[in-house]
Amino acid sequence: MDRLAPIESGAAYIADWTWASLKFIVYLLYLATIPIHYPIYYTFAFVVFLFSPIWYMAQLFLGAGLFVANLIARLKYLYIYFACAAVIGICAGAMLHGSTSMLFILLGVHPSQKPATQPPPPAPPQEEPSTEQESGAYSGADSSGLISSESPSFRRKGKDAYRHDMTERERDALYENKWRQSGSSRAPPIPPIKPRRKFRGLLAQTIHEESSESESL
To answer: What residue spans carry the Basic and acidic residues bias annotation (predicted)?
Structure first.
């Protein structure tokens, strides 16, 4: 202890001397900066005045953020409720999907099957031109001389008309047979369809040509 006493006293003296020296230096600096104290003070006050709106806006946003954070922290029970509701809904949906899939498998119903396509509706029957219209059309064409009996288009039309006449004759014969068969039944008889006079075909054109030649004579 006696040996450390001089060292402790020397360290205390050096510390006191250093502290006194620093105080003296600071005092000298204060005296040297007295002329610029006021300019620095007013400059600092002016800068604070310019940036005061930004400072207040920052305080406002900071307060709003803190309020939202506190509100979120207080609504933790509501979040827990929503989380539990979501878990319950997911479990219920999984159970419903499993039960419906099991029922589909047991009943042999596959939801991926497409419904059977229905056949398209039959086309409406086309109306046939009346005898007067046909006779007027053919007589007008013969009188004007636009259609020639020797042209290939006329021959083709004559063949088509002949086939159409044959089909109509067969249909008339079928209706007449049905009418005869239904005469003995209790159902009211079907009136026979009278064959209509046809004014188309090669024969009709030839007759018109002969009549036109006789008129010219």
So the answer is: 159-179
Identify the CA nearest to 200 among candidates 146, 144, 133, 150: 133
| Per-domain boundaries in the chain | 7-74, 131-216
> Which residues have CB under 8 Å from 191's CB, separation 6+?
179
Q: Which of 204, 193, 209 is nearest to 128 (CA)?
A: 193
pLDDT in tens, 8-32: 777 777 888 888 889 999 988 888 8
- pLDDT attached to residue 142: 46
Give the contacts of 110 (CB within 8 A, at least 6 positions apart): 104
* Inter-residue contact 137 to 198 (CB < 8 Å): no
Residue written as tokens 């307060």? 63
pLDDT in tens, 121-161: 555 555 444 444 444 444 444 444 444 444 445 455 555 55
Q: Kindly give, in sequence order, each residue whose CB lies less than 8 Å from that of residue 34, ignoring residues fewer than 6 positions away.
A: none
